[in-house]
Amino acid sequence: MKNLIVANWKMNPNSQKEAKDIFDAIREGARGLDAEVVVCPPAVYLYASGFGQGIISMGAQNVHFEDKGAFTGEISALMIKDLEAEYVIIGHSERRKYFGETDESVNKKIKKALEAGLKIIFCIGETAEERDAGKKNEVLERQVKIGLFGIDNLENINIAYEPVWAIGTGNNCSVEETKESVNFIRKFVKPKTRILYGGSVKSENSGGYIKDAGANGLLVGGASLSAEEFVKIIKSAE
Ligand code: PGA
User: Annotated catalytic, 162?
Assistant: First the structure.
């Protein structure tokens, strides 16, 4: 299976034009490269950025766990699917921290997104406090087990291991520590399940996660807003 390289644009950029420019440049740069590339823009751009022409897949950054109804501000898995996006990020630590997502709501979202035929990028990761208290593995195990509770077929599940302290801080997790966590997480999923690393990934550090830590891909935030930098990251994962 190819390595999976995912761009998480978060709440950026501020115009359709900018989104389209970055997207087009990524698509040009990614042509012919041997990795599966997914761009997850804000949902309003899923339509506007145009589709990857078989080179890039699109993904959303969040989804609601009901099909439809009185949930102001939310989007459903069916809406995402209808826009021909293939993927959705679920359980990102920013959603857990700022929007009250729990392991239980993440589980419901994953089930609903799978039902709609979407592929999942399921985020887990410990905070600095949890790591310092020696609770990393306990947290990862709980997040994976509850997040995937009742789901037997993991074919469309990808796990993104993102230590919260490494996200957006420039303080990326070492290859050694990532390797330990990737191996630990692997115990709870299928041998074929892709496990990605995320947290301050840049082109200078990206290759090591794939080549030495045993990750099967990367979830890239800040650095994915520069097409040039993101294309370098994709190349490092070939
Ligand atoms: P970062 O974000 O690459 O900016 O650290 C990663 C993420 O939040 O997915």
Answer: yes
Q: Which H or E run includes 119?
A: strand 119-124
Answer yes or no: is pLDDT of 107 > 70. Answer: yes
Q: How far is CA 6 from the centre of its chain?
A: 6
Q: Tell me, which fold does domain 4-236 have in CATH?
A: TIM Barrel (3.20.20)
The atom of ligand 1 lying closest to the CA of 167 is 5
Distance of CA 100 to the CA centre of its chain: 18
In the chain, how many H helices and how many E strands? 10, 8
At 205, the pLDDT band (50, 70, 90 cuts) reads very high
The full set of domain ranges for the chain reads 4-236
Residue 51's pLDDT is 61
Q: What is the pLDDT of residue 50?
A: 62
State the catalytic residue, choosing from 36, 64, 92, 130: 92
| Token representation of residue 218 | 């990367």
Å from CA of 113 to ligand 1 middle? 22
